Amino acid sequence: MRLILGSRGSKLALWQAHWIKSQLEAQGHETEIRVIRTSGDKLATASLAQSGTKGLFVKEIEEALLEGSVDLAVHSLKDLPVDQPERLCVAAVPPREDARDALIARDGQKLMDLPSGARVGTSSLRRRSQLLGLRTDFEIVPVRGNVDTRLRKLDAGEYDALVMAAAGAHRLGFARRITEYFSPCQMCPAAGQGALAVEIRCGDERVAQTVNSLDDQNTHLAIRAERAVLRRLGGGCQTPIAAYATIEGDCITIIGVVADPDGTRIIRGSARGEKNDPEATGARLAQDLLNQGAKAILRG
C-alpha cells in the first residue's frame, strides 16, 4: 500500500513522522511524508498561551486529511484538541516515551541548587505554575523554537535553565543534557505528553487496518483517561491543566492538576478505576478537582 503521511516540519515532528514511516515500511508499505506548515509554526515568536486558539499545530494538517491530500497524520498527542473534527479519529497511539518534564541547567545544577532569581525558560503555563509552586524566587521567561534552538539560547546565556518535555530531548539525542527529571507528583505532565497520535479519516478501513499494529493498548487507554479530564474541565490555553495516567494490571490510576498561572494556588487530585473504562476515571478526577475549587481558577 502507498500512504501519504502529513506532518509538521520541525525536527521533532519529522523525527516522529519518520519513526511512524519506518514502522509502516517494515510492514511492506510505501510511505511518503508531506510537510505541512501550521498556524503554530507561523507564530514563531508569539505566545501560544495568549493566542487563545486550540489546535495551532494540527489545524492545517487535519484540513489536508479531510480533503484527502494525505492518508494519515502524525501529531504530538498533547497538541491534539479533545474536540476533533467529526470525520477524523485517532486510530493508533504507539508506546509512550518518557512523559516527564526535565530540567536542563546551563551549569548542570539541580532545581534546588539554582541561584535565587535564576532565569528559567518555558512558554508552558502548566510548567510555569508548577515551577513557581516549587521555587517562588525564579524568573520565568518565555522561550519558543525547536529543542536545538532553545539549547543554543541556553548556552548563549539567555537563560540559566530550561524546562521541557523529556520525550523531545530523548528523541532528538539530547538526553545527556538533562540535569534533573521532575516526578509527575512534582510537575504533573500535560495530557498526552510523550505520546503520538496517528489520526485518520473515520471509516477509512484500509488505513485503519494498516496502522492498527502501531497501537499500544495501555498507552491508548491512559491517553483516553487524560483527555477525559480536559474534556470535562473544558479549560483553554490560558489555564494550566495537567493529567497523567498509568496502568498496572487491570487498574488505571490518574493524577491531575489545575493551577493559577502564577502558581499561587495549585489544586491536585487523583482517581483510580478499571482500565477498560478510562473516561469514567478521568471524569471522576475532573469532578474531584472541581469540588476542590478548580471552577474558580478555570473561570479566570
Fold blueprint:
Blueprint: E1 2-7, H1 11-26, E2 30-35, H2 39-42, H3 48-51, H4 59-67, E3 72-76, E4 88-92, E5 101-105, E6 119-121, H5 125-134, E7 139-141, H6 147-155, E8 161-165, H7 166-171, E9 180-181, E10 196-201, H8 205-211, H9 217-233, E11 241-248, E12 251-259, E13 266-274, H10 278-299
Parallel strand pairs: 1-2, 1-3, 6-7, 6-8
Antiparallel strand pairs: 3-10, 4-10, 5-8, 5-9, 11-12, 12-13
Helix pairs in contact: 9-10
Describe the structure.
The termini are far apart. Helix 9 runs parallel beside helix 10. Helices cover 35% and strands 24% of the residues. It has ten helices and 13 strands. It is globular and about 55 Å long. With 300 residues, it is of the alpha/beta class. Strand 6, helix 5 (125-134) and strand 7 (139-141) form a beta-alpha-beta unit. The chain has helices spanning 11-26, 39-42, 48-51, 59-67, 125-134, 147-155, 166-171, 205-211, 217-233, 278-299; strands at 2-7, 30-35, 72-76, 88-92, 101-105, 119-121, 139-141, 161-165, 180-181, 196-201, 241-248, 251-259, 266-274.
